[in-house]
Write a structure and sequence with these properties.
two-stranded antiparallel ribbon; mainly alpha; 156 residues; Arc Repressor Mutant, subunit A; 9 helices; globular
Length: 156
């Protein structure tokens, strides 16, 4: 059983194995956490007049070692191609992303220097805020949380 500083996970969350009343509260808790996670980017997005939709594309492109097509980017992020197309067109128009060539089939994309700057700021700010958020947990609790969330993520 997973333990959190001498209290089991079930005791800590006040959940009994078959207590649906407590289990149904999990989406509310996860929603609150997700809202906070999304807000981490807001000061940087405001600074560059971007929206939250742009974050994943900028960070994903910054993580790529080479240029990537819009189709590959959609697949990497597991998002709709139409949404990717709209976001990328906006980032192209605003000078955060550029096409490496005009080949309409492969459409290789990469970040401009400005795009790299924004992506790095987003990643640094996210890391700082996430560390602050998780500071209430012990190292063991952080490892347990990562393990639990990974297990759930791999099974959805």
């Amino acid at each position: 059983m997973l333990n959190f500083t001498n209290h089991s996970l079930i005791e800590r969350t006040n959940m009994q194995p078959n207590n649906d009343k407590e289990v149904v509260k999990l989406p509310l808790i996860l929603g609150k956490i997700l809202k906070k996670l999304h807000s981490f980017a807001d000061p940087i997005l405001e600074k560059y007049d971007l929206s939250r939709i742009h974050v994943h594309y900028l960070v994903a492109l910054e993580d790529c070692e080479k240029s990537i097509s819009a189709k590959e980017l959609s697949e990497k992020l597991a998002v709709d191609k139409a949404n990717t197309s709209r976001a990328i067109n906006d980032l192209l128009e605003r000078g955060f992303v550029e096409k490496e060539s005009e080949d309409q089939k492969t459409f290789p994309l990469k970040l401009t220097e400005r795009g790299k700057e924004v992506a790095r700021e987003l990643k640094a700010n996210n890391a700082k805020e996430l560390l602050k958020m998780l500071s209430v947990l012990t190292p063991e609790e952080k490892n347990q949380m990562k393990s639990i969330l990974t297990k759930i993520s791999e099974n959805i």
